[in-house]
């Protein structure tokens, strides 16, 4: 399923280059990697960290109870670098959106979070943290609607059922915010306790926060996540 963006509107396009994983880890560890660490970095680069950056005591208490080995430290360092990179990219994009929309009509904090999550997922899961690949963000605003597509350079479709996760978020639109947040926290808590990687929170939020959102693979291009939101009147 593909969407044709509206004609004769404000359009912007961003090509984003992710952080270099080796350089960042060397900086975090204060020196060059030895052969053992290079092997860990190569083989475990895609392993999800079992911690999340959160002020919640749930994550802090669980993290304290787990002995962090070197592989986990590398995962945490890389996740931190990726998160900061995605945050900065999303912030720059939202600042442009504010200019185009007159800084009104949208919840810009919400837009930032959803763009951040999709960019991060694209670089991590689609581009596999390869800094030679780019994430492209195209967006447009026609005075009534904001629409964007985030495109990675993945050769194959995502293994997760991304659209189902987005749909679950859409089904929660009428759920009170506190109840929704509690749901997300319980999802992550359960997965952490089972020793499984956390995930899906961003896609749930995307489905809840956008008027329309979906994901598909475009052969020869990559994975595409489309989102749109009507301006508040």
Write the layout of secondary structure elements.
Blueprint: E1 10-17, H1 21-29, H2 35-44, H3 57-64, H4 70-101, H5 108-126, E2 134-141, E3 145-151, H6 162-170, H7 177-193, H8 201-209, E4 212-218, E5 222-230
Antiparallel strand pairs: 1-2, 2-3, 3-5, 4-5
Task: Give structural notes.
With 233 residues, this protein is of the alpha+beta class. It is built from 8 helices and 5 strands. A 5-stranded antiparallel beta sheet has the order 1-2-3-5-4, covered by helices on one side.
CATH topology: Heat Shock Protein 90
Work out the count of structural domains.
1
Overall mean pLDDT: 77
Spans of at least 5 consecutive residues with low confidence = 44-68
CATH C-level class is Alpha Beta
Radius of gyration: 18 Å
């Amino acid at each position: 399923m593909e969407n044709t963006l509206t004609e004769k509107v404000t359009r912007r396009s961003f090509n984003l280059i992710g952080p270099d994983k080796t350089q960042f880890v060397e900086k975090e560890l204060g020196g060059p990697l030895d052969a053992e660490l290079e092997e860990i970095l190569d083989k475990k680069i895609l392993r999800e960290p079992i911690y999340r950056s959160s002020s919640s005591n749930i994550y802090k208490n669980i993290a304290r109870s787990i002995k962090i080995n070197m592989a986990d430290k590398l995962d945490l360092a890389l996740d931190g670098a990726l998160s900061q990179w995605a945050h900065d990219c999303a912030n720059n994009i939202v600042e442009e959106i504010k200019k185009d929309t007159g800084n009104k009509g949208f919840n810009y904090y919400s837009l930032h979070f959803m763009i951040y999550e999709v960019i991060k997922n694209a670089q991590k899961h689609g581009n596999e943290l390869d800094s030679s690949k780019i994430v492209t963000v195209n967006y447009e605003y026609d005075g009534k609607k904001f629409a964007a597509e985030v495109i990675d350079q993945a050769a194959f479709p995502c293994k997760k059922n991304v659209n189902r996760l987005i749909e679950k978020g859409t089904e929660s639109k009428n759920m009170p915010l506190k109840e929704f947040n509690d749901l997300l926290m319980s999802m992550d808590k359960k997965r952490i306790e089972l020793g499984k990687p956390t995930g899906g929170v961003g896609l749930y939020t995307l489905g809840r926060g956008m008027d329309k959102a979906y994901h598909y693979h475009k052969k020869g291009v990559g994975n595409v996540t489309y989102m749109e939101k009507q301006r508040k009147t």
